[in-house]
Amino acid sequence: MTLDAAERALLLALADDEHMVGARHTNWIGLGPFLEEDLAFCSIAQDELGHAIGLYEILLSDLPDSVELDKYAMLRDAADYRSCWLAEVDCSEWSDSLVRHWLYDRAEALRWGALTGCPDERVAALAIRALREEAFHLDHAERFMGRVAGADATGKIAASINRLMPLARGLWDVPAEGDPIASGFTSRPITELAAEWETLIAADLERWGADSTLPGSTVSTDQVHRTIRSEGFDAFHADLQRVILLDTSAIW
Amino acid sequence: MKTYEVFLKKAGRDEFRHAGSLDAPDPEMALMYARETHARRAEGAEMWLVERGNVLVADPDALAVNDDKPHRHNDGTLVAARRKERREGDDS
């Protein structure tokens, strides 16, 4: 089955999101708030990178020419990535990473959920596998956030939500190629998923006894169909490329 | 944080074995973390967690009194020796 432009755009956005967020999560290896959390968060990072690989494989197998996965994942020009800013941005504070993890995995469950009945069997199988892992990610995010978001004595969680929520809405920026709902590739339109996501986020905060008023934005967070990279992307991208550029012909 | 002892059992007839311990704020998170700290490579098909405070610990001195009771060790050598003696007795 050959993917059309809108279908490719949707899968690429999901793949690049998984890649970027997985890579960002790995920055906590050895630095997590405590050993057990370090390991759990690192497992989540590995899962996300695994999903990215699965999606890249589908995208590449659909191309007429053979392209190596690592090179496609790492060595594209910045303008050719379709990740959203939430997945890309530096979250060096644990509270930022935790809030991103929660916002992102709430969205992922919905995005993968809309692909489990995909007519492309490769995509449907990957979605079913990914959702099994996402159940753990969401469970982890909810349990951790549920224990810190309500109390939040230092205000760090609220500050992270204020910082990241406006960026996070870029998750739902419909690709320029359109939403592949018409062809039945996905079961629900992106705009519908976005609305449900906002409702779920607010309901989580309310359940945890935190302020459930979701912040708007005073700065431009228009990600122009995911074609514009976030601040700090180039340094992050260079960091990701550091090993592969040592020898691009090496076989791992 | 509380400390939990983790026990794992592989599929089949193997018994539960102590796999290690971990720290977690409560039982729910302990179960979640235990899977990632001790079973992330499918080391077990079943898992028990016991909060360390709930483990009954015996006094080592109470155990030490049994250090010197070789007659309680039955490795079969005495019986084997007697059987051999009997057999050789029958041959002659």
Structural class of chain A comes to mainly alpha
User: What is the total domain count of chain A?
Assistant: 1
In whole angstroms, how far apart are the ends of chain B? 74 Å
How many β-strand runs of chain B? 3
- Assign the CATH superfamily of chain A: Ferritin, core subunit, four-helix bundle
Give a quick account of the main beta sheet of chain A: strands, pairing sense, barrel closure. none
Largest sheet of chain B: 3 strands, antiparallel
User: Can you tell me the CATH class of chain B?
Assistant: Alpha Beta
Provide the residue-averaged pLDDT of chain B.
91
Structural class of chain B: alpha+beta
Rg over CA atoms of chain B = 23 Å
Multimer state: heterodimer
Determine the mean pLDDT of chain A: 94
Q: How helical, in percent, are the residues of chain A?
A: 55-70%
Beta-strand level of the residues of chain A, as a percent range? under 5%
